[in-house]
Structure formats: structure tokens, C-alpha cells
Write a structure and sequence with these properties.
CATH topology of chain B: Rossmann fold
Largest interface: A-C, 54 and 55 residues
Helix content of chain A: 25-40%
Number of helices of chain B: 11
Order of helices and strands of chain B: HHEHHHEHEEEHEHEHHH
Distance between the termini of chain A: 52 Å
Largest sheet of chain B: 5 strands, parallel
Keywords (chains B, D): Oxidoreductase, Thiamine pyrophosphate
Cofactor (chains B, D): thiamine diphosphate
InterPro entries (chains B, D): DH_E1 (IPR001017), PDH_E1_Alpha_Subunit (IPR050642), THDP-binding (IPR029061)
Radius of gyration of chain A: 20 Å
CATH superfamily of the largest domain in chain A: Thiamin diphosphate (ThDP)-binding fold, Pyr/PP domains
Oligomer: heterotetramer
Protein name (chains B, D): Thiamine pyrophosphate-dependent dehydrogenase E1 component subunit alpha
CATH class of the largest domain in chain A: Alpha Beta
Catalytic activity (chains B, D): N(6)-[(R)-lipoyl]-L-lysyl-[protein] + pyruvate + H(+) = N(6)-[(R)-S(8)-acetyldihydrolipoyl]-L-lysyl-[protein] + CO2
CATH superfamily of chain B: Thiamin diphosphate (ThDP)-binding fold, Pyr/PP domains
Bound molecules: thiamine diphosphate, magnesium ion
Strand content of chain A: 15-25%
Strand order of the largest sheet of chain A: 3-2-4-5-7-6-12
Number of domains of chain B: 1
Strand content of chain B: 5-15%
CATH topology of the largest domain in chain A: Rossmann fold
Chain lengths: ~325, ~325, ~325, ~325
């Protein structure tokens, strides 16, 4: 057991899988110098320029070439740098990668991992801060993963690389420096399983990605006040772990979904709606979502913060959920 | 000029290519007829008049080589060796179609013969083909990839990105611009700056060769030379084949946006008739020529009848081939 | 009052607005020959090649050029042909058009309408059948409109063209031939207002686009059996008409959302979640969604139909909602 | 060679351009210093060493002409006439910033002087600039549009789509490839097939001119000629300006991926020093040259101090400028 960062955990996952399987390779801009954040540091020295491939600034072709390379038996890891730039390659991901296996009647598969760093990262502004996981969850054919801890980034990225279908793998930029324990040996986290980050019986909080940590801090404050919330980190958004979420809500009777992304038509709506549909009669209070308002993300901190879900707003929302019902 | 050498033509080789061109045309004629009968379910984009490109290119590919095509891909698919019955079943949306009825004409594919798919998105196969070549190169394979696209596709960004990529990584790709003069109902030249596909390829460092795409012998010769270069590791080449789309954009497009005289002149320039003349000059008997046509027509009429008698796919197949993880059936409830 | 098609209603909207305002123009592939479906038939003859502009097959540039042209004081109508091809221009729409006004601090606006025909249209298969309205609803800066009748297509498209921000205008391909009454004079339908397509008190059905008509047929069958459902056609998805929806659910106590698109992370989740959050205590039954399974759309009819919400499934869902609750 | 004509230089004109180049550099030096103090909040991409492109191009534009830039846009924005205080406030995220603190360095824009924005997406401004020119042409305006982009941007699809479009519609656009040799940390030439920006433009039917981008006099002359052509309605022109990025990709990038000797040699090639030599040859006094530098440095230090003393924007401004319809504040609850 060693302590390391979320960034290095992802790096280790790539190294281990590339060592295990010669068909795995990575492509993206500036990978030879370690990538934008250093996730690929030293990898070109280890694996050579063919398997850690620097590419032109051609997002559409990076994604499209990965589709073709996956069809011919390799397992590409696509680096998109910022998830925002993946918007230059949506046809390639959504019309091609996601649909090929189906359109062609299962003649082949498209095993590829698309790493797209998401999320607010102080003063990165509107084109470098987005979280569009809801989009990908909506697209048949895609698996969607949002790791939130170093150990999960190790174990989920390894599983994603081994998956035979396209996986959109959304690391959070604010988590790169997060430290945590990494198991020593082979560590795989299965796709599709949520983690109960904290047990509790008062309210079920369902969250993912960086918000896990904000929720856990809020949970500590609440705990000090005698309210024990359960925090579920979905980890995989598609397929999401209905059993864990439903089981928890059946116990607590209360659901709060916390997401960093825009609340309107965000993935939180899927969770809230599913729980409301399936567990209406178990609910002791209405389901509730917290997310960003429907505004682009601004540069100045005071403005950017308006798009952030704070610890305080989580605490308030939990209090609202457990408050005795007053006349509407 | 290649035509002038008609009397030197290898009758076996070009006889087989004539046969293939007849089969492509007969397949599409059968499909068009079937569409009128309501048997072909979605849109089809016939390549009638363009058969020499498919035949001339694919004659120079090995079965293991890969081919990616366009929405107008029946000819390419047949020429790469796909089973026309499976193809017709696909157009009819039946079980046993190349894609099990999931794709239809615009997504026809037969990975078994290295045909990696038509594509419903113009230009989308250029990066995919480039990536396929990248994958082959990474695996140390000696196979090559051919990517056919239309003249309209050269105005999409992926054309630049894909060709640049192929050059940068020195990939074994033959890019073929099958230039039929039209982007759907628009004349491509009015929407295209500069010298077109060849000039653009050259500006990206890729050698380009232009050829009369209705001259099978010329297409064959150019493809052979280009593919030989590619196989020796020289990297990508672009072939620009000028041809003409005799039908409308789709089988139901009357194409009134072009003068009848233009179409009539182009009918005279039919690649099948031109190869027939050359083969006649090379001594092929009229009876043999007629037989090639007749056999192809019979084969495809037969196939259409067989396809018509094929079962529909099982509805539950809608839920397969989506992805391994998760239950695709999952509805809200 | 004249009877005309949904297609001609859209055409009339363009003509009227182009006559009214010289800064309105349209751009897209093949517009000079009327566009793919004939929506622009004869318009180049009326307005010339500058104002009805044929373009290269360059979706990214069509969208991007419209952004620039809108910034300089014109009002472009972008034709994307099939909404699927708009996936070649997502950066231009989402990172540029939607965010420019905000990123640049309100220095200008981007008045443009992006027409993207959506929906299943028999045997068009996976790359010509998608409905991604949920994506656009999730993006700050975009207005999202889904007309379902000829009169609405006239009145909403005119309003969209007059709107000063980017509007994603999603006509449904299956509706082109639908006939209906068109008012004679100026007919504007305000953005953001739902229509109650049918009044009822048993269940509130919220729907949009082509599904309105399927819901209305189901409603007739139910009515014959004594069940009167209210059918609300949202018409505009962003901003959606909370007042009308909430008012109806407060009366009926039951909500069914019916959408053609993939249910998972679809816009129906937003409606269902919002109602569950706000009106939990008014609900007599759990909220419920109907939508497509998470599969690409197939070519063969029997397979394609598996992605369709049928009249029968709507009737079943309504019956489920009004059935007395049995033990779970 | 343009440099050889130093003694013929118009001292007023080029003196003003020297001053502008000093101001650009001083602005960025002040910004870099302020970033170390935590005052500049997001990433900045300095253009130190590239000032002659901004100055030489913009000197030939009218205030009404439009300019679109890149993520490395401070110099272009200043050269187009924006107020450096408003710019610095934007970098500091303060009220009164060009974008009210909403954009920051990568979205700096001043529509009042025709500067239609930096862009955080490489190449994205090429279609937007083309469309701006399209809009101007539709309105019968005689203004022109200049679009500056980096050498890395020519490998993105929108480069092809935008240039082709500008040619097809004969639009008044000056495309400027500001080639500093790098795509972030990658040498662009290793990722670029063929002859680069100029060759690609020519293949699209757009005349191209290459110029030493560190030679202000040459940039000025080439820009003047190109813009004159554009104003007479000849359609788009591309200028390829070779220059060098003295700093790292961002202000905090140590850029260890290139040898110190290379950077040292390029420092010798500083466009400001070169213009100073030329002006000295043209008879400008050393004292005047020094004054230009000193004034610029003082101006920008002052401005940084003022920006630092400026209020933050009101938090509620986060909800404005989104769109007219709907309540952006709408959360789930
Ligand atoms: C990205 C994209 N834009 C538009 C279309 C609609 N479309 C289908 S085929 C076609 C014309 C393509 O012309 P070309 O590439 O020359 O091929 P051809 O049809 O002539 O074989 C168009 C515009 C599409 N399928 N994909
Ligand atoms: C579409 C896109 N891909 C990648 C990036 C990340 N990125 C920012 S600047 C840059 C390098 C651009 O090189 P160039 O165009 O030459 O401009 P320069 O930075 O040299 O001025 C890259 C790759 C981006 N902003 N947008
Ligand atoms: Mg064509
Ligand atoms: Mg550069």
C-alpha cells in the first residue's frame, strides 16, 4: 500500500495495462512531453513513440483514427486534454465509435478509452471547465466512468482499458493532486459498481467525481450535528448501480443528488427521476437535486463560484430533506 | 490512351473485371427495382456509371486489405468480395443481411472480406480508414487500407485531418476521391476552392494522381502503381477518379437540376460500354460480352427474389450488439 | 385560415421573416434546390443566392460562419439537414455560439436559428434518426424548440428567428407531411409556452415533438374507456413551461412523460425529476417516463420499432398510473 | 531585405509601431509578473517575441475592420486598439475588464474596437472570422476581417473548411498564420505534412505570401499589399509569418523541450531590437528609442497597479449575459 496522487494512479494504470497487453497504446497532443497535466510523464521513454503517440491538433482525427485502430485489433487510449475539446470530435465518438458495433450487426467491436478531463479548475472559464457526462450517458453504446479517488482512478482506468466497447473516462482536473492509498498488486475496480463512500441512515446522497469529496466534508459537519448521511459515489454513470442506490434510498427514505454539472437535464435528473419512479412510496421527502445553474462558467472567482455547489448548500439541502414537513 | 492499348488487354483479367462491373450494375438495378416494390426500406445511393472505380481499385487489393467506403458503397462492397445475397438482404432489412438488418444500405459492411463499412456521414470514414492503417502499422501488418470518398467530402475538415495524419505517420493508405461532380444536388466545383482533391493532397505532402474514372483500364493501371508504392512503405497516395453519377443522388431523386443533354452525353461515356469496346478490340467475342451481361442480370434478379423470401430479423435482436455493460433494454420503468 | 403542411408552415415562416427583416438569411447544403426535404423550395428564386446560400459540405464551417455572421449584425438560419450531422459542428454550437455572449461579457449577441430535423423516419438507421434535444437543454445559452404542428412550426420558427440568442430548432422528419390549419395573418407563438393539446383530469402527459400525436391517439382510446388524460405539448424545452406542467399535475396528481428519444438521461428525466421534487406531496402515483431503450436505432422495421414508444405502451402506462396501488 | 531599407523608413510611422511593440511586451511582462503575485487568475499565453505580427498587421487595419485572434491574443488585442487597463482588469478578473471578468485572457475581446475575441479552442475562430466577413459582405460593408491563428491550427479541420468557404464566397478576409514553430510543447513541423500554411491555402485557391514575422517592416509591407488586394474585392489572402515564441506555451511552462541555444539565438532575433536597429539607421536618436521602451514599461506597471486596485465584479453578474429566455438561476430546486 503506497500513497500517491490521482494523477499518478491514472499513469500507473496506463503503464500496467500497456505492459500487460501489447495492443494497448495512447494517442494525443503533447503526450511525449507528458500530456497537459503530466499524466503521461515518462511514458514515451518507456514505451516508445509508436505506443505513446504525439498527434497533430486534430481532435476529430484523433478520435476517428482511434475508432479505425480499434476496429483493426488495437486498444487505443485517446487523450482529449480537456473534455471541452472533445466537442471537436463528437461525430467520431457518437455517430461512429458508439454505433459501429451495432450498425454493423456485431461484426466487430470498438475497444477504446476516451480520457476527457472535466470540471471546474479555478479560473479556466467557459471553454475549459465543462462537465458533460450527462450527454454521454444518453448515448447507446458508450460506457461512462467518473473516478473520484486515486485508487478508483487506478482500478477503473484499468477496467476501462480492458473493456471491449468505447468508454468515456472523465477524470476531474481538480483531483489530479489528490493523494490517497493505492493497493500494491493488481487492482481492478469493476465498471458499473458504486462505492458507498460513507454509511448513514438519514439521507442518501448520490454523487460522482469531485463532488464526492465536497459531500464527504458536508457529511462530517452534519455528523457532528447528529445527522448521518450515506454518500454513494456512483463511479460509473453508465451502467449506474441501481441496486446500491435503490437499496440505500429504501433504508433512508430520502435522496439528494449532488452534481457539479448544470442541473437542468444533467445526469442527476436520471437518478432523481428513477428513484421517484421506482421508490415513490418509500420516500419520506421529495427527491432533490443540487447542481450548477444554467450559466456558462465564468473566469472571475466570485462569478465562477456561483456555478459551484458548496458544502453549505449540501448541508442546507440535507436539512431541508429531514425537516418535518410544513404546509406548502 | 490506356484504351488505345485495347488490343493488348489481358482478356482474362479484364473479362473478369467486366463481369464484376456488370454485377455491380445489375445489383443496383435490381435494388432500384426492388425499392419501387417497397422491398428496399431506406434510401439507396446508386453508383451506376461509376463502376470502373470500384472494379479498378479493388482488383488490385488483396482480400486481407481493408476498404472503407461511402453512403454510395454497393459497388465497392461487391468489388471487395462481399456476398451479394447478404447485401441484398441488408437492403431489404432481412435476417442474414451483412449487418443483420441493423445497418441498411448506408452502413453496409463485411468485415470478413475486409470491407469496414459504408458510412452515413460524409467524410467520416477518412479518419477511421487512417486509423485502421495506423492500427495495421502498429501491428506490423503488411496489409493496406483503401478509403474511397466523394468529391463533396473534400470540403469537410476530416479530409484535411485524415490526410495530414496519414502523411505524418507514413501510413499505408490509398485515398480515392470518386469524383462524380455532385455533392447531392449541388455541383461540387461551385463549392470548392482551388484545384480540388489532388491539389489538396499534394499540399499535405501526399502524391496525387488523376485518372479518367470511367476508363477501367486506366483506373486499374493507376491503382496498381499507387498500391505498389504504398506496399513498399512510401506512405499514402491519393487517386482522383473523375466519373459521373448517371442516376440522381438517391434512387428516387429525378435530378432535374442538370440538363438532359449532359446526362445523355455521360451515358455515352459508360465505363462498361468502354471496357466492352476495348475487350472487343482485344478479340473478345460479342457472344462472350453479352453472356457477361446476361449472367450478371440473372444472378442479381435471382438474389433479389431470394432476399425477398428471407425472414425478418427477430425483434429481440434490437437489443444485441449494443455494448457488453449494462442492460440496453433499460427504460425509465 | 388555410390548411397546409408542417413543411410548408416552416417555409412560410422563413419567407415572412426574410421579407420583414433584410438581415435574415439562410445557409446550408443544397438549399438552392429546396433543401433535402423541400423546406426551402423556391426560396432562392425569391431571395437570391446571397440570402438563400448553398454551402459546401462543411457543417463545422456552416455553424461557425453563422456565429461570425450573427456577431456582425445578420440573422442566419442554419440548416443542418439531419440533426445527426450537427454532431460535426458541436464545438461551434456549444463552445462558441452558446457561450459567446457570456464569455465576452455581453458585448454582443449571437442571434441564429439552427434547424436540425430530428427523429425516426422509417428505416433511416442509426446515423439519420437521432433525437438529442436533451443535450441542448443542458447547455446554458441555448434555447431549444420542438414544434409539433403546422401552426406551431409557423409561429415558433418566426419567434425563433426574432430571438436574439441561438435557438436550436428541432423539426421532426416524420411531421413534414402533417397537415393542419394555418392562421392567415401574422402568427407568432411565444417561445417558452406549452400548449395543452387536450384537457383531462386523470393523468398529465407531458410530451413534445412527434410524440404529441401518438399521445393524442392514445388519449382518444383512453377517453373511449372513460379515462380523460391531459396532454401537454411542451413546444419549447428550454425554457420549459413549469407553470403549465405544475398546474396540471397539481390537478391530476399523476405524471407521465412521453419522449421519442432515449429515456436514459433524456429530457423526460428533467421533467419527471422536477415534478417529483416540487410536487411530491401532490402526487397520487409515482412519476413515470416512457422513452426509447438505450439502443442505437436500427434499419429493419421490426428492430426499429423496438426503439419506438407505441400508443399501446402509453395506454399501459396510463393504466398503471391510475390503477389502485397494490403491494409492491 | 526590407531591413536594408532602414534608412528610408518613415520614422513617425515605424516609431509608433515600435512604441506599440514595446507596449505589447510591457503589457505581457507586467501580466507575467502579476501572475507570480497571484493577480492573474487563469493561464496566460505570452506572445513575447511575436510582437511584430500584431503590430505589422494591425497597423494596416482600420478601426472598423474586424480582428479575430487566438488564445495568445494580448498583442493582437492591444494592437487593434483595446484599452490595456480594461485588458489587465480582465486578466485579473475584475470589474471593468473587457469582458467584465467573465472571459479572462483566453476570451479577451473588445467589440468596440472591432476585436471579436480570442478563443480557447484552437482554430475555432477561422470559421467565425469567415462568417464575420460573410456577414459584412451581405451587408454591403467595405470593412474587412483579419483572422490570426497559430501554426498548430492548420492541422484542424476548420482551417480547411474556413479557407475553402472564404474562397467560394470571395470574402474579404486576411488569414494570418502566426507560426512560432510550436503547438504547445510539440514542434509543429513534426505533425504537419506538406508545405504548411501557404501551400494549403494555395491548394484552396487562396494566394499566400510568406514573410519573416520578426521583421516588422516586412510584415507591414506584406500586410499592406494583401489588405489592399482584399479591399479591391479580390477575396481572401493568407499571410504566413514565421516567428518564435520566446516564453513557454503558457507563462508557467519552462519549455525544457527545446535547447537553450535555440532560445538564445532567437532572442537575438527579437523583433523589437530589429526594428530599433532599423530606426537607428533611419536616424532615430538613441534617447528616443530608450524613451519608447521606458514609457511603455511605466504605462503597463501603472496599469497593473490600477487593475489591482479595482473591485471584483458583483457575484450576481454570473447570471447576466446568458440569454434572454428563461431563468438561468434555475436550479433543480
Ligand atoms: C456530414 C454530412 N453532411 C451532409 C450529409 C448529407 N449528404 C449525404 S451524401 C451527400 C453528398 C456527398 O457528396 P460526395 O461526397 O461527392 O459523394 P457522392 O454522393 O457524390 O457519392 C450529402 C451532402 C451527410 N451524409 N453527412
Ligand atoms: C481544439 C483544441 N485542441 C487543443 C487545444 C489545447 N491547446 C491550446 S494552445 C495549443 C497549441 C496551439 O498551437 P498554435 O496553433 O501553433 O498556437 P500557439 O500556441 O503556438 O500560439 C493547444 C494544443 C485547444 N485549446 N483547442
Ligand atoms: Mg460526388
Ligand atoms: Mg504555434
Amino acid at each position: 500500500m503506497a500513497t500517491d496522487t490521482y494523477l499518478n494512479a491514472g499513469r500507473r494504470a496506463v503503464i500496467e495495462e500497456m505492459q500487460r497487453d501489447g495492443s494497448v497504446w495512447a494517442l494525443g497532443e503533447d503526450l511525449g512531453r507528458g500530456g497537459v497535466f503530466g499524466q503521461y510523464k515518462g511514458l514515451q521513454e518507456m514505451f516508445g513513440t509508436s505506443r505513446i503517440a504525439d498527434t497533430p491538433i486534430s481532435e476529430a482525427c484523433i478520435m476517428g483514427a482511434a475508432v479505425g485502430a480499434a476496429m483493426t485489433g488495437t486498444r487505443p487510449i485517446v487523450e482529449m486534454r480537456f473534455s471541452d475539446f472533445a466537442l471537436c470530435a463528437v461525430d467520431e465518438l457518437v455517430n461512429q465509435a458508439a454505433k459501429a458495433r451495432f450498425m454493423f450487426g456485431g461484426q466487430m467491436r470498438v475497444p477504446m478509452v476516451v480520457r476527457e478531463p472535466i470540471g471546474m479548475w479555478r479560473s479556466s472559464a467557459a471553454q475549459h471547465s465543462q462537465s458533460l457526462e450527462a450527454w454521454y450517458a444518453h448515448i447507446p453504446g458508450l460506457v461512462v466512468v467518473t473516478p473520484s479517488t486515486p485508487a478508483d482512478n487506478l482500478g477503473l482506468l484499468k477496467s476501462a482499458i480492458r473493456n471491449d466497447d468505447p468508454v468515456v473516462y472523465l477524470e476531474h482536473k481538480n483531483l489530479w493532486v489528490l493523494e490517497g492509498d493505492l493497493p500494491d498488486g493488481e487492482h481492478l475496480v469493476p465498471l458499473g459498481e458504486a462505492a458507498i463512500a460513507r454509511a448513514g441512515d438519514a439521507v442518501t446522497i448520490v454523487t460522482w467525481s469531485a463532488m464526492r469529496h465536497v459531500c464527504l466534508i458536508a457529511a462530517e459537519t452534519l455528523s457532528a450535528q447528529g445527522v448521518e448521511v450515506e454518500v454513494i459515489d456512483l463511479r460509473t454513470l453508465w451502467p449506474w448501480d441501481r441496486d446500491t442506490v435503490f437499496g440505500s434510498v429504501q433504508r433512508t427514505g430520502r435522496l439528494l443528488v449532488v452534481q457539479e454539472s448544470v442541473s437542468v437535464a444533467g445526469f442527476g435528473a436520471e437518478i432523481a427521476a428513477s428513484v421517484a419512479e421506482a421508490l415513490h412510496h418509500d420516500l419520506k421527502a421529495p427527491v432533490r437535486r443540487l447542481g450548477a445553474p444554467r450559466i456558462p462558467i465564468a473566469y472571475a472567482p466570485a462569478l465562477e463560484d456561483r456555478a459551484r455547489v458548496s458544502q453549505e448548500s449540501i448541508i442546507d439541502a440535507v436539512r431541508g430533506l429531514i425537516a418535518p414537513r410544513t404546509a406548502a | 490512351m490506356a484504351q488505345d492499348n485495347g488490343h493488348n488487354l489481358d482478356r482474362d483479367r479484364f473479362g473478369a473485371m467486366l463481369q464484376l462491373m456488370h454485377r455491380i450494375r445489375a445489383f443496383e438495378e435490381a435494388a432500384i427495382a426492388a425499392q419501387k416494390d417497397g422491398l428496399v426500406l431506406g434510401a439507396i445511393h446508386p453508383s451506376i456509371g461509376q463502376e470502373a472505380v470500384a472494379a479498378g481499385i479493388c482488383a488490385n487489393l488483396d482480400r486481407n486489405d481493408l476498404l472503407l467506403s461511402t453512403h454510395r458503397g454497393h459497388g465497392h462492397t461487391l468489388a471487395k468480395g462481399a456476398d451479394p445475397l447478404a447485401m441484398m438482404r441488408e437492403l431489404f432489412g432481412r435476417a442474414g443481411g451483412t449487418c443483420g438488418g441493423k445497418g441498411g444500405s448506408m452502413h453496409i459492411a463485411d468485415f470478413g472480406v475486409g470491407m469496414l463499412g459504408a458510412n452515413g456521414v460524409v467524410g467520416a470514414n477518412i479518419p477511421i480508414a487512417t486509423g485502421a492503417a495506423h492500427g495495421l502499422k502498429l501491428q506490423g501488418s503488411d496489409r493496406i487500407v483503401t478509403c474511397i470518398f466523394g468529391d463533396g467530402a473534400i470540403n469537410r475538415g476530416p479530409f484535411l485531418e485524415g490526410l495530414n495524419w496519414a502523411r505524418v505517420f507514413d501510413l499505408p493508405v490509398l485515398f480515392v476521391c470518386e469524383d462524380n461532380g455532385f455533392s447531392a444536388t449541388t455541383r461540387t466545383r461551385e463549392m470548392t476552392g482551388g484545384g480540388g482533391a489532388g491539389a489538396r493532397a499534394e499540399s499535405l505532402g501526399i502524391p496525387a494522381v488523376a485518372v479518367d474514372g470511367n476508363d477501367l483500364v486506366a483506373v486499374d493501371a493507376a491503382a496498381r502503381a499507387a498500391i505498389a508504392d504504398i506496399r513498399t512503405g512510401k506512405g499514402p497516395v491519393l487517386m482522383h477518379c473523375r466519373t459521373y453519377r448517371i442516376t440522381g443522388h438517391t434512387a428516387v431523386d429525378p435530378a432535374t437540376y442538370r440538363p438532359a443533354s449532359e446526362v445523355a452525353a455521360q451515358r455515352e461515356n459508360c465505363p462498361i460500354a468502354r471496357l466492352e469496346s476495348a475487350l472487343r478490340l482485344a478479340g473478345m467475342a460479342d457472344g462472350d460480352l453479352a453472356r457477361a451481361h446476361g449472367e450478371a442480370a440473372r444472378e442479381m434478379t435471382d438474389i433479389a427474389a431470394q432476399a425477398r423470401d428471407t425472414d425478418w430479423p427477430a425483434p429481440e435482436a434490437a437489443y444485441t450488439d449494443v455494448q457488453d455493460m449494462g442492460d440496453p433494454r433499460e427504460r425509465a420503468f
